[in-house]
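chain below, 383 aa
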Amino acid sequence: MDETRGSLRQVVESHRVVVTVGSGGVGKTTTAAAIAMHAAMQGKKVLCLTIDPARRLANSLGLDEMTVDEQEVPAELFTRHGLELKGELSAMMLDTKRTFDELVAEQASSPEIRDKILNNEIYKYVAGSLAGTQEYMAMEKLHSVRQDPRWDLIVLDTPPTSNALDFLDAPDRLIDAIDSPAMRWFIQAFQGAGKFSFGMVGKGAAFLLRGLSKFTGAGFLEQIAEFVSGINDLFGGFRDRATEVGGALRSPEVAFVVVTSPAPLSIAEAIFFSERLKEAGMRRDGVVVNGVHALIPEPSAKGEVLEAALQEAAPDLEAPGKIIERMHQALQDERLRGVADRIETDRLKNRVGDEVVYVEVPKLEEDVHDLGGLATIASHLVP
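prediction:
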């Protein structure tokens, strides 16, 4: 492990899928793009699958915008930045509803059931907003593209959720939602003729639903019942697929990289993410800490020497002593940031353990906005 310390090279070269996880605002998406870019420059055919539609990410890859279809990054853009592209780099953004539609089409027992579900108004709403849908569909899309032999490497940027590891539970949560008591209740009330039957439910529920239908219209209840019945047709296939998707995440060819910043809260979340991955039986292959301030030694020159040098360089400058004082305070602030970051990164290493590769990316003077910036990040991730 010592020879790979400080580099994700082995992680990238020995896995076909790399999944970046972490909370929002820590550079997770940029890290995923930089990993994908490096692998493509080394000769691999790479797909970067992201959830982030931000224009800044698209611009970094030389694209006008992220789309739900694969877009190949032109080789001439690499050349323009003095970079050599030996492989291929493509990027695409997850479309939750489109992925759900494809899953429905694959699992439906007949074209009629497929069309009934896809055209249902309730389904159209649920496909993009049901709790856990985006997280599960990210895993579903990953599972789908993983079966495509064109790609040597797939890099997935996980969804920006309040809990960055929601996707670990997404398959089970989606199945629980489909197999919930409420769903089963609607299925019992939905007759084979395709109409909602008040006679199939209790008197109290029937009274409530009749009152509701006066406001929503009976058609709304029919839409709900039709949707529930259609989903029930898919249940067996969904359950098997969710089990398959969950198992794929534990495959030896899948690597997880936790991305964080040195901020105390982010470090605490990274520790939690790492422990959660371990509990779920997932690989913990790497930890990336972005935006680390360098440790700066105490300046050796005395204040009088610095003031004399400043006066010599700018003789017309007023109050050079005060300027030196402000510069000294700024330097001390930066030195303290470096010490604070070192304390937090050491805490992270101590809690996560020695079996994980750690990579620190220094604090950069400007944000990443093009392929050149991504190349700079990649040079720290895979030196």
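The chain has 16 helices and eight strands. Residues 1-5, 191-218 have pLDDT under 50 and may be disordered.
thats it, cya
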